[in-house]
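Q: Convert this sequence to structure tokens.
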Amino acid sequence: HASVRKFTRDNFLTVRRVDVGCTRVAYDHNEEDTTSAMSDETERTMGMWHLDHILYTPSTLVPLAKWSSLEEDAHSRKVGLPNDRIPTDHLPIAASFERHPHPRLSPEAERIVMESLNAIESSQREELNAHTLEAGQKQTELEQQHRLANNIADESTTETESLHAVKKSKKKRKSPPPPEVIQHIRNSRAALKVLKADHCTQREKFIEERTVLERMVLQRGLGGGLTCAQWVESGPEVDK
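A:
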């Protein structure tokens, strides 16, 4: 059932049920004191259940007629199913429909919808790229400041200490980033997380404000089998 719900949601299908009535009738399974009831079946009760269904899409199908159900079969309601007239424990069901063409947006309306999609993707992509660029520039600036400070400190050391350091190890180990660079990286990642969450909210609102037909156009435009729900979560691709 979960897969069916996901399919109808992802494909924007509205599904309705034909009221076919009850299709199963028998002695209630919860009947108490079965032994005494068997001696006088008029005291037993029959239970009826809605077990069989016909689903349809109202955008393309209009119900015209259906087969009768147990509500119109007094004999089966009295003796249960199967019986001398109906040799099955479920009534068969059927319905006829009038088929309508699937509604579509005009070419101009489709163009406007796709332009709105491109606009929100372009805006979010620019914001993400700007954040990445700004964070990278700030990190480079901090690293340069750190190297400059180290160079000044190195120049203040004695020549003996410098020679000793060279002789001790010609191969320098890569030192960890300075604290201010580490803090900047943490802050930029936190800001990026907030930005992406805000973008996700924008995309969710963008989809919610679209009609079903507009969502179908958007989903076709996304391509690659991507659904609108998946696009809301993932967002546009970002330049690397």
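Residues 33-38 have pLDDT under 50 and may be disordered.
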